[in-house]
Specification:
globular; mainly alpha; 2 domains; about 70% helix; about 260 residues; 8 helices
Amino acid sequence: MAAGELLRLAFAAALGLCAGSFLGTCIERVPRGLSVLRPRSRCEGCGAPLGPAELVPVLSYLLQRGRCRRCGAAIGAGHLLAELGAAALAVAAYLQEGLSPEFFRTFGLACVFLAVAAVDLRHRIIPDGFVAAGLLAAFLGAPLPGPPTLLGAGLGLIAGGGGFFLVREAYRRLRGREGMGAGDVKLAALMGAALGPGGWLAAVLLASAAGTAVGLGLVLAGRATWTSALPFGAFLAGASLLMLFCLPCLFFFSSSFQ
């Protein structure tokens, strides 16, 4: 690999680490209704504001050995995982798109789906702010080359949100109780806008299969019952992440035979 290519790859990884640091703050604060800008990041143990040296992604956590240098309280690994996850997504987006406008579209949407999965796993909610940010990235990036087109994003939005809304209402009327949260409907609309109708359907099928397999495994292991609820939004977001990187490959493969 040429030196220039290595520098661009390192830049993408560094960008991912920095974005992941902010993403970790969003994952921590947004579900609690807190501002992501103020107050400054603080130690959960002693409440002391973190200095610049303590905010360097990954490196500060490793140098401090996962503990506050003032009070010795353990630092949660959530930020570290968000930073590493975002860096991995940035590298994957770079390898797929290069440093192009398409890179920022793919990376932005990937970060949103990562944040949705993390919050839904922990809190069983899908914040409207994440959905709004994802829709903005999807429609701003739709005119760029590659799937989906602007029309595809619009049709996907209608198919995803409308389809899940109808399923939710039908279940509620037949069973007399909620079987799907409103957050899942909004997430489905985002998935459709980001992936187009075909990509949305593939992601839903993949998420359903994964959720069924995990649920069955938990039941057989005695850690859940047949009526236990799973954070389906996390499966939807995970499947969307996979499709986000698979769709351009499928698009290129199909177009090469036309």
